[in-house]
Amino acid sequence: MAKLAQADLLAQFEEMTLIELSEFVKAFEEKFDVTAAAAVAAVAPGAPGAPAEAAEEQDEFDVILTGAGDKKIQVIKVVRELTSLGLKEAKDLVDGAPKPVLEKVAKEAAEKAAESLKAAGAAVEVK
């Protein structure tokens, strides 16, 4: 029997329905006497000896426009560049500050957006 490459196996799994895949996993577990259960964390949260740094690092940030400042038109332009909003929607967002401009973005994207808005004269907060 020829050995299948990992990519070939994944291609076969992609074609399976969830029921077929579930049945395969059960048969695999029985054949090789293993369990496909998700790994459990070795240290429970808040357990003695667990360092405080073990807390999950934030990887999604929100960019909140807290004020438009003196250059409202420039801020509206930057908001339109950062989002897919039209002119009216961007103006409403700026007028209704504090409001989120971007939500659940990467840290680098949030910092870049905040810098652009600050350069246009807006007051910005990254959470």
Describe this structure in words.
With 127 residues, this protein is of the alpha+beta class. It has helices at 6-15, 18-32, 72-82, 87-95, 107-119, and strands spanning 61-67, 99-105, 123-126. Strands 2-1-3 form a three-stranded antiparallel beta sheet, with helices on one face. It is elongated, with a radius of gyration of 25 Å.
Envelope shape: elongated
Total number of helices: 5
- pLDDT < 50 stretches: none
The structural class is: alpha+beta
Helix share, percent: 40-55%
Spell out the helices and strands N to C: HHEHHEHE
* Main sheet makeup: 3 strands, antiparallel
How many strands appear in the DSSP assignment?
Answer: 3
Describe the structure concisely.
The protein is an alpha+beta fold. The protein is 46% helix and 14% strand.
Can you give keywords for this protein?
three-stranded antiparallel sheet; 127 residues; alpha+beta
Topology overview:
Elements: H1 6-15, H2 18-32, E1 61-67, H3 72-82, H4 87-95, E2 99-105, H5 107-119, E3 123-126
Antiparallel strand pairs: 1-2, 1-3
